[in-house]
Amino acid sequence: MNQKLEAFRDEIRGKTVSVVGLGVSNTPVIDFLLSCGASVVGRDKKDADALGTLADTLAEKGVDLRLGAQYLD
Question: pLDDT tens across 16-28, in order?
């Protein structure tokens, strides 16, 4: 594996990372961060109903969801 990528994985393992915006483009980013051993907080202005099945899928993967008007708190 690429040495820089492996160093990144070692650095991020066990840390908490926030991802702002839970659209289609950030889903692979979230999966990658989880595979590195990071805890992920997913933040989005939309509520769970507006996100639909994506909210359920992310929650099942262990993503801590912060949704709605206070998503940046």
Answer: 999 999 988 899 9
- For residue 50, give both structure tokens: 């507006």
Burial status of residue 40 (CB atoms within 10 A of its CB: 0-12, 13-18, 19 or more): buried
Confidence of residue 1 (pLDDT cuts 50, 70, 90): low
Question: Is 47:68 a contact under the CB 8 Å cutoff?
Answer: yes
Burial environment of residue 32 by CB neighbours within 10 A (0 to 12, 13 to 18, 19 or more): middle
Mean pLDDT, rounded, of the chain: 95
- Let me know: does 24 contact 48? Beta carbons within 8 Å: no
The model's pTM is 0.90
**Are 64 and 40 within 8 A, CB to CB?**
yes
d(CA 71, CA 45) in angstroms, rounded, equals 6
